[in-house]
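Subject: sequence -> structure tokens, single chain

Hey, anyone have a minute? Need the predicted structure for the following. Not urgent.
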Amino acid sequence: MGSLGVAKWRCWVVIVAWACGAAARTLCPARCACDDALRAASCANASLEIVPIQLNPEATHINLTRNSINNLLYTFNFYTQLIVLDISYNKIQDLGSKNFENNLEMIHLNLSHNSLKRLDEETFIGLKRLLDLDLSDNEISSIHAQTFKDLSVLERLDLSNNRLVSFEPDSFEPLSSLKILSLKNNSILDIPSANLFYVVRLEYLDLSENLIQQVSRHGIPYLKELKHLDLNSNIIEIIDQLGFHNLPSLRHLDLSDNNMTAVPTSALAKLSNLTHLYLSGNFIQNVTALCFQSLFHLKHLHLSRLYDLEKIDSRAFVDNINLQKIWMNENVKVGEVPPRLFHGNPKLTHIYMKNNALETLEASHFPIDSLQELEISGNPFVCNCSLLWLWKLGMECEVSSRETGNTSAILKIDYESVKCAAPEHLKGVLFVQIPESEFGCSNGWVIVAVVVLTVSIVISIVGGVLYFMGPLKKCKGDKSKQVMSSVMLNGDVSKLSNGLGYTTRSREQESKRDVDRYLMIGSSVTNNFHSLNPPWHSVDKNPYYQEDSEEHIYQQFAYETIPPHRTPEKPHIVYV
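Reply:
Had a minute. Here:
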């Protein structure tokens, strides 16, 4: 008997069996569970090698998972009211053509965990109402360009864990209603931009665990409704600054476990609605200031397993005002936290900094008032006075927890796992087992600190005095020189009182001596003036003027320096 005859014989057997099943709907195969009232049948783990044909022909739900079925030939044509079909975890290698042609009511089809190698042109003919198609965990390496032509209302397509490298042009063109697409764990080399162009309603896209090297400027087409993009575990090194500019609604972005050496700040800045960002497992060396600028709605940030990370700028998260949780575990080169790193994040409640290289922590690093959970175990802490605040905080939280019994409102710190790495006598000792007296610093250190502070204060004071006295002395010297010059050249002795006068009586005598000294110096100058002026006779003489007076002009003005309690014996006016 030829192969054609065998096929016909099988077809007749199926028809006869179906007729028998229709006549006796209560007939149910061994190891199966049937419910005619619900029109459901389950033959999971029933050691079946073929699809049973004696089930209720009006069944809407059939479960055939975890059997040894390897062929679907002519088995579902008479289950015309089938809505849900699960054939996962079997040994099916080929779906054939038109095996689902009569299943016009089917909505969910699960073909995962089989041995499928390709999808032909007419594999899914007839499934015009199908919403969910699971083809994950097979060996599919080829998909015909017309495979999905009847799946115009399909909303979820899972092709993860297969052997896909690329797609035929326009393969996704019929999938205009698709919302969820998973291509995880294949061998895809580039983002399938040409096919993503058609899935305009896509909300979830998983391209993780592939071989994608970059996100180019036009790598991802305009997907207005995309909210979740997973690109983790690829080999991405470069992301163009416009690589994500076509994703205005993106909320969740996973770029972890790639080959990036820097945070793609410019590309991320286009994602103003992003709330979850994963960058763990890259080769980032420096988290710079405003590294996550414009991400004002960011809530969860993952920066763990950055084995090359050495420095975090204190202004790295200043734009992330809605940040709630941050993961910074296993950054083995991070030895310190910059002061006030998280003080620009008022809503931050959970901080995870386990297994880093931190030797100390300061209270100013954290927003203690709003913090709900802090994990810091696995760090080589030096247990001295710099950590006393943490020890006291832990004790206070423990006491409050025992007294109130309400742990949800109390800061949780993983004290039970925190150990000291130094000093030597506390090495390996749990934080909670150390008494408060051990959290001290040596007196020598304190003395040195006090001496340094005292010397600094003294130097500052002396420097300040010298700084202000220098200009003052210079000012006085310059003014004295100006007065001297005026007296010598113009005979203007009145300026002496301004240039040399003192405000206290204790210095009046010293002022007089200075003036007399200037007068003596000026006497030689006045002798020259006597030879140039007319004789000391005037028609209009002053009553106080004495013709035989030996006093000259400088003596006249010298009376201005006589103290108030003395009166001049002979006022003298000279006309020059």
